[in-house]
Amino acid sequence: MPFEPRLVVTGHNSDGDAVFVDERHPEPVEVLALPGAEFYMMWGTQDGAPTVGEPDPMPVMRPYFPGVGGSRVIFLRWAPHSDEPAPTPDPEAVRSDVADKLPGLLDPFEDGNEGMHTTDTVDYAICVEGELCLELDNGAEITLTPGTCVVQRGTRHAWKNKSDRPAFMCYVQIGATRVP
C-alpha cells in the first residue's frame, strides 16, 4: 500500500483550549515539468517570523519557495526512472502549467542542466520510501534511503530517481538569506 500523506492542524477554540482545526488528505498536484511526480502541498507559513494563536490558521503555499523566514512542507512522490512518461515537448505549455499549479517552482532551475537548481532556503529532505539520488554541482552523488535526512543549505543540486520504484520524500523548506 503506497504512503498517503495526511495533514492534521491544531489551534485553539474561543475558550483557549487546544483543538484540531483541520484534518485531510491533500490531493496530489502533477505538473508537466516533472512527468509522473506527485506534489502534496501540506502547509506553509508567511515570510518573516511565524506566528501562533490565530483563530483560523491558513496555509501559505504560494509561491512554491518561501521567502526569508517563511516555510513550506511538501511531500513529493518521484516516479521511478523506468516509468517516467516522456516530457512534454512544448516548453511554453510546461511553463504555463507550472505557473498555474505551482507558481515559482521553475524559477531557480537552470535551462539545459537536467534539474540543477539553487534555492535561498535551508531544506530538510527526508526519504520516506524508495531511493532518491542527490547530485551536487561537482558531480558528487549520494543515494538516499528511507530514514535518511539531508540538510540542503542552498547548494546547487539536482534530485533524480534512478531506481525502478517510486521514491517518496518529505521536504521542509525554510526561507533564508544568502550570504555571498
Please provide a written account of the structure.
It is a single chain. The chain has a single domain (7-175), classed as Jelly Rolls. It contains one helix and ten strands, in the order ββββαββββββ. It has one helix at residues 91-101, and strands at residues 7-12, 18-24, 38-45, 71-78, 121-129, 132-136, 141-144, 149-153, 157-160, 167-175. The model has no long low-confidence stretch (mean pLDDT 93). By secondary structure, the protein is mainly beta. Strands 3-4-10-5-8 form a five-stranded antiparallel beta sheet, with no helix packed on it. 21% of the residues are buried. InterPro entries: Cupin_2, OryJ/VirC-like, RmlC-like_jellyroll, RmlC_Cupin_sf. It holds the Pfam family Cupin_2.
CATH homologous superfamily grouping: Jelly Rolls
Unreliable residue stretches: none
Number of helices: 1
Q: What distance lies between the first and last C-alpha atoms, to the nearest angstrom?
A: 46 Å
> What do the pLDDT scores average to?
93
Biggest sheet strand line-up: 3-4-10-5-8
Number of domains: 1
Chart the SSEs and their pairings:
Elements: E1 7-12, E2 18-24, E3 38-45, E4 71-78, H1 91-101, E5 121-129, E6 132-136, E7 141-144, E8 149-153, E9 157-160, E10 167-175
Antiparallel strand pairs: 1-2, 3-4, 4-10, 5-8, 5-10, 6-7, 6-9
Protein name: Cupin
InterPro entries: Cupin_2, OryJ/VirC-like, RmlC-like_jellyroll, RmlC_Cupin_sf
Domain Cupin type-2: 116-169
